[in-house]
Amino acid sequence: MEPQKKNHNGCGKARAKPDQKRPKKYTHPLQKGIRDFVTTRIPPSDLQEYNLSIETFMDGLPKRYTVYQPLLLLPPNALTTPPAWGALYAALNASQRAALFESVVANFRTMGVTHVAMNAPIALTHPQGQENRIRSPVGLVPLYGDFGTAPSVSADGDGDMDNAHPSEKDLQSALWVHTVQNQGIVQTWAPLYTMFSRGNITEKARVLGHAGVFEGLDEESLAGEAVGDVGVIDMYAGIGYFVFSYLKKGVKRVWGWEINGWSIEGLRRGCIANGWGCRVVRLRDDGGLVDRPIPELVDSLDDDTRVVIFHGDNQFAAGILDEIRGLMQPRGNWNSIRHVNLGLLPSSHGSWDNATKMIDMDKGGWIHVHENVDVREIDKMQDDIVAEIKRLRSQNRPDPNPVEHSVDCRHVERVKTYAPGVMHCVFDVRLSRTKATN
After folding, report:
1. Looking at the 3D structure of the chain, how many domains does it have?
2. Structural domain contains residue 130
3. CATH number of the domain residue 330 falls in
4. Is 152 a domain residue?
5. 320 and 208 share a domain?
6. Burial letters 361-370, b for 16+ CB under 10 A, else e
7. 100 is in which domain, residue-wise?
8. DSSP string for 9-36
9. Same domain, 246 and 350
């Protein structure tokens, strides 16, 4: 018997011939999920019909994805790029598509994925043409898993209000996802009904003091007042983007306004996950409270209630807060409002008047104005904001005593590019009150 031939390393196993190609391994979970599906569920004859091989499109498959447990969010081109893959996907029937996403989910199982959807930019209008004031993610495409009842917009109705007041059944049946960001802050939302902006992470970090300039959350800039004694207003609270950063920084309480009931439920669930007490207060169309009068609301608040979120139009904010302050201040449990956050894009101009009324008239404070600005007009926008807020502050003073209202923009934060030539900026405007000199 002839001895087994050995390779040059002395090993008993013969090397593959140079012209033998080993199958390429794909470890990227999205690519691997697609390959597993194609190799097990698509007959080779079908690939030949399209003059395709797996290698034709595998290397060109998109690799970007985002996981918000339990959701895998794919980019808009995930099922069309490269063209060879797009043609194959378009030819799949419903059963084959379900099998495809089962294969993809299986490769993301260690990340807690059970659902798949395709992302899309937030549209400024609904398909019927109404303004998308509550920034519903109307372009999100569910691909796999139960997301709850799809949102509907009546042809002749209000595009916002059709989905701004979900029922308890709607809330319980929807898919809720979460992510963890700055210093372990949990944020929760229903992706079929509520947007989530990853680009705000830098501004949230700034509020926390991790990056950039954010004046007014330290005893020095608060003139000796402790951060834990300060109140904050968020006029567009959403799911708690900035609310949670203020709470993590240590402010006593945040009073928020929001018209989207889905966002409010996300904020409430996020508060529970982070260990903060939250009270949701429904407003009537005239600004009155639905469930109880303001004195009863005030009586029900305790130190554990870190967030009071009003479900309704923020045009009534200053009047409501003024009545609440009038009841709490004599009791010694009022926390002066030192910050107002105005996080609406493309412009928060409609809330500037209310904001100037709510900043503590004696101690002053900061208004954080979010605006989309032509990059060539940022300096001009800064001057315009300061001039208008100074006018409103003087106009809204509560007494005729001669005072000088000092208003200046302390910092302009360029958060992110919103569109070509357009920047999402935050203008940190400080308001102070000093006696006029003769």
Report:
1. 2
2. no
3. 3.40.50.150
4. no
5. yes
6. bebbbbbbbb
7. 29-116
8. T--SSPPPPTTPPPPPP--SHHHHHHHH
9. yes
Each residue's pLDDT tens digit, 279-320: 999 999 999 999 999 999 999 999 999 999 999 999 999 999
Cα four-point dihedral sign 151, 193, 313, 307 = positive
- Residues whose CB is less than 8 angstroms from the CB of residue 415 and which lie 6 or more positions away in sequence, other chains included: 199, 200, 202, 203, 370, 423, 424, 425, 426
Alpha carbons within 13 angstroms on the beta-carbon side of residue 168 total 0
What pLDDT, in 10s, does the model give residues 83-98? Answer: 888 888 999 999 999 9
What is the rounded distance in angstroms from the CA atom of residue 204 to the CA atom of residue 413?
A: 12
The residue among 55, 88, 116 that closes a domain is 116
Residues in contact with 343: Cβ distance below 8 Å, sequence separation at least 6, in sequence order: 234, 235, 236, 238, 241, 242, 368, 370
* Residue 41, domain member (yes or no): yes
Taking the C-alpha atoms of residue 42 and residue 87, their distance in angstroms, rounded to an integer, is 14
d(CA 420, CA 60): 27
Closest CA to 317 of 291, 295, 350: 350
User: Based on the number of CB atoms within 10 Å of its own CB, is 214 exposed (0-12), middle (13-18) or buried (19 or more)?
Assistant: buried
Within 10 A of 162 (CB to CB), how many other CB atoms are there?
Answer: 17
Same domain for 217 and 99: no
Task: Take residue 190 and report the two structure tokens written for it.
Answer: 């229903």
What is this structure's pTM? Answer: 0.84
